[in-house]
Design goal:
Blueprint (H helix, E strand, L loop, with lengths): L14 H9 L6 E5 L7 H10 L5 E6 L6 H7 L4 E4 L4 H11 L20 H23 L6 H20 L3 H15 L3 H22 L12 H19 L3 H12 L5 H15 L3 H8 L3
Length: 290
Amino acid sequence: MLAPYGLKTDTASSGGEAIKRIEQGNAYDIIFMDHMMPVMDGVETTRRLREMGYKGKIIALTANVLAGQDEVFMRNGFDGFISKPIDSRELDGVLVGFIPAAPPVTPRLTPRAGTAAPDELKRCFVIDARRAIDTLEGFRAQGRPANDADFEGYTTVVHGMKSALANIGEADLSAAALRLENAGRARDAAFVTYKTPPFITALRKLSEELSAPDDSENVEMGDADRRLLREGLDALATACAAFDKPAAKAALDGLRQKKWPREVGGVLDEIAAHLLHSAFGKAAATAKSI
């Protein structure tokens, strides 16, 4: 979503990592801080950054927009917040308002209920959904979340699925994820235990429906194909090292012009999911894994 602005982006996978980036002297025009993160949430991370003397702009990303929520964020050191799923018009207003050099762009609207999500977004959703299913199956296998750490992990997973489902227009299933998220926050073990299995079933069914038909079983690779793949992946990894998302996306799109064996296609899908979340380190590591 930030690509049209020509901005270089960086990503941190946790609150602790975000703090470390600032301690290392990295400078940012703006920080988008997820409200819900495991171990240290966005509010606590921002509070610690402000205590360190950090003066830069910090914008909260939250799926929990309640009356008075803006005041809560402001009291805890944020400069503003954007609700999730993110509306690109709202993002545009924040960027242009806080970064004068950022040119306004024609917003690309986030898919809502009843609209078709782009194929790339669907592919990335399938990967995220499968990971979420694996995690939720782990909670189901142990019967129910056993302690606060389990509940926090569970809540983080369904929170992520809530936003991902909304982004592809699955409003009903997103609402189901919201109910599970609220139950996780309330430590309602009975509700979580009773409602998680049907949610997993519905999520798995949707994932299967969105998965593209696999006709790559008999695709073979020659030496020229292997060189092309390696060159493309190396270019992608180089772009990721420079946090250059447009260049990384261009390299990935170039590779997608060709049909590859199933295992290569799976790696490209995984890289696409990492790029969608601006997880440049993970995208580069995946590119180097084959």
